[in-house]
Amino acid sequence: MSRITGLSTADVRFPTSLMLDGSDAMNPDPDYSAAYLRVDTDADDGLTGHGFVFTIGRGNDVQVAAIDALAQHLTGQDVEALLADMGGTWRSLVHDSQLRWLGPEKGVMHMAIGAAVTALWDLKAKRTGQPLWRLLAAMSPEELVDLVDFRYLSDALTRDEALAILRAAEPGRAEREAALVREGYPAYTTTPGWLGYDDEKLARLCREAVAEGFTQIKLKVGADLADDVRRLKLAREAVGPGIRIAVDANQRWDVADAIAWVTALAPFDLAWVEEPTSPDDVLGHAAISRGIAPIPVATGEHMANRVMFKQFLQADALQVLQLDATRVAGVNENIAILLLAAKFGVPVCPHAGGVGLCEAVQHIAMFDFVAVSGTREGRLIEFVDHLHEHFVTPVEVGDGRYRTPLAPGAGTEMLAASLAEYTVGAHG
Amino acid sequence: MSRITGLSTADVRFPTSLMLDGSDAMNPDPDYSAAYLRVDTDADDGLTGHGFVFTIGRGNDVQVAAIDALAQHLTGQDVEALLADMGGTWRSLVHDSQLRWLGPEKGVMHMAIGAAVTALWDLKAKRTGQPLWRLLAAMSPEELVDLVDFRYLSDALTRDEALAILRAAEPGRAEREAALVREGYPAYTTTPGWLGYDDEKLARLCREAVAEGFTQIKLKVGADLADDVRRLKLAREAVGPGIRIAVDANQRWDVADAIAWVTALAPFDLAWVEEPTSPDDVLGHAAISRGIAPIPVATGEHMANRVMFKQFLQADALQVLQLDATRVAGVNENIAILLLAAKFGVPVCPHAGGVGLCEAVQHIAMFDFVAVSGTREGRLIEFVDHLHEHFVTPVEVGDGRYRTPLAPGAGTEMLAASLAEYTVGAHG
């Protein structure tokens, strides 16, 4: 038996605002950051579990403080017991009534729990010598539904319905796993489209994206309509008619604005419209979906929890579901969201970029393909070519696809040298 | 001109779990706490602004850290400029893109901004020598709408519609203010109904509530149906048929459970059913509202922001709106919520209790009566008789009514002696 000996946290910040990487209509100057966590144990294997919350700068210290607050729940605990019942472990954190009051199940405290849960999954995957996606994809339907908290979901998805979805996907698991390892998973790139880039850089990066094998790119929009029209025209000319172009407004609009603005951009053949308005606005997104159909609405990266995803699906308020690795409470809640998406037949195209989101979320999408939805059709993982060099197992993307990770773990471990260099307030 | 010289914060915790005060179906052992803030200036008047976030124990330190993170926005700022444009001040905090990422507009960071905004309102009210409710009620409709951020609201409430609501209420302001000072504002009491109290204590406190002049009490339910039936029967016998009894499930149920459970309790003549399920579940509450009509659904104390309130009103998912003084981003966002409620014709019965929530929220309800809805009809402020002795201007409740506060400020200042005694980790 081994015990958790402690959590070590770090306030990691990269000065990305200097280059306007990541600039959009709502976030003009992000400094990509991670509230980072390492879980240590007294086991002889020397393995550690790593997790983080992605933030864009100020407040990363608050996020670190929230992760620190979980030490009292985890330090001293029996590691094997925690890892053997990850559903119970998740509930013991999320259902703590006093911590729950700080959300409930949303914002800083919920994301902190996500970092801890993911760090435990990282540890569990390393202990079994498997990449997280394969560890999950080897679990039985019964074991998988035990990971999910169906509280507040039962009007849309019951445990039995989830079991049926997972059982229906069981027969083809082995073939899909082989295909995944052979072919990887499709990606799209947001690298060309940041709002702070000038036209020359935009066009050049669009051409490069096509040359690199991507079949979809994404542009940030929503600050100025005339600029958006000019940039979309440039991008469409640069990539040609065969490449899909999605646009992302990063919550800039109200409902009527969104419909009018997207209607003006529709001639450029939009793959989807992302985050048109507040991520809390189920009814607003439903109205926008009706107003801009057949252009799909994509959202999810800022959606607080499974209850919000449930409603967006119930109301047909999104047609592309973009879960995020660190916004909800970790791997378990993302499995709940995958099951909801499968129930409603909506494709999951995860949000990524930031710090380590690509590394983390690829495991969720690949698990989905092998064991939940059973398809890659209409699904792509976002890719942004930033900051991968700071991770122990950086993503490998080529020919417009994520190569399937085979190293043990959840992909969430940063290099010690990067932690040392970019941790704020650390000595040494 | 004066400047903010600094924020002082305190992690204040009361050991209420020892008495099971505040126990309910989701929160068995709360330790009522406040993440407390004092804003100091270099003005000669020596006045300070006070605000806080109510929490129930663990994690209060995280909430304090979030308030501390606002020091960089406020320290050194021109006080007169901040207070003269409280709408702009609110936006400068809530729209900070990096802090916003931590919500957006929800959870720990959003509540921290609420504490800061309320502390500034407390300071402004003290500088004008007025209680907050009267300061607000003396502002013009134009000044009031300038306090509100209509982003994400315009599909339900525009600035012009809000102006029309406020202008329609202008003529009777003086008479209503006089009536308010003379008569106070109706209250209901939750004191009898905590889940941890035994039957004898429940019945005794019910009788006392009636003797004290309350016309409505509230009971916690949702842990065990047989217990709820027994307790409601006891309570109904103790208060008689003329007193309204509301029940509060504190988010315990899924949609179908809620409808079945409430149907079983309906014979006891329920005034409303509070928080039947997740506070994020607009569609779930709408289904419950349809399922238990004509019994009203009441919710709001855990609703993250104005976008959620907008949708609950659009979907007829609540029939009694329970805003909370410290859950959303302070006084400004609560004014937005009052305007939404007025637009949809729904009564506001604020959540209170906890630490200082009665002291703070009475100002919002009283301002609503004088200048927004123009009525007290069907409206009550929750009252719980706990912890008032720690405030400089504690509420005065008698004959089932809040006495109208006349002391300058927002009611949010705690006694220095209480802060010294209950601050965790403070020396001396």
Question: What do you see in this structure?
Answer:
Chain A has 428 residues and is of the alpha/beta class. Chain A folds into two domains: 4-129, 2-Layer Sandwich (Enolase-like, domain 1), CATH 3.30.390.10; 173-418, Enolase-like C-terminal domain (TIM Barrel, Alpha-Beta Barrel). Helix content of chain A is 43%, strand content 14%. The first copy, chain A, has helices at residues 60-68, 71-74, 79-84, 86-94, 97-100, 107-128, 132-137, 141-145, 159-168, 173-183, 199-211, 225-239, 255-265, 282-292, 306-314, 330-344, 357-372, 416-422, and strands at residues 4-13, 33-41, 49-55, 185-193, 216-220, 244-248, 270-274, 297-299, 320-321, 381-383, 397-398, 401-402. In chain A, strands 4, 5, 6, 7, 8, 9, 10, 11 and 12 form a nine-stranded mixed beta sheet that branches. A three-stranded antiparallel beta sheet of chain A has the order 1-2-3. In chain A, β11 and β12 (401-402) form a beta hairpin. The radius of gyration of chain A is 20 Å and the shape is globular. The model of chain A has no long low-confidence stretch (mean pLDDT 96). Chains A and B meet through α1, α5, α6, α14 and α15 of A and α1, α5, α6, α14 and α15 of B. Chains A, B: Residues 199-295 form the Mandelate racemase/muconate lactonizing enzyme C-terminal domain. Chains A, B: Its cofactor is Mg(2+). Chains A, B: InterPro entries: Enolase-like_C_sf (IPR036849), Enolase-like_N (IPR029017), Enolase_C-like (IPR029065), L-fuconate_dehydratase (IPR034610), Mandel_Rmase/mucon_lact_enz_CS (IPR018110), Mandelate_racemase_C (IPR013342), Mandelate_racemase_N_dom (IPR013341), RHMD-like (IPR046945).
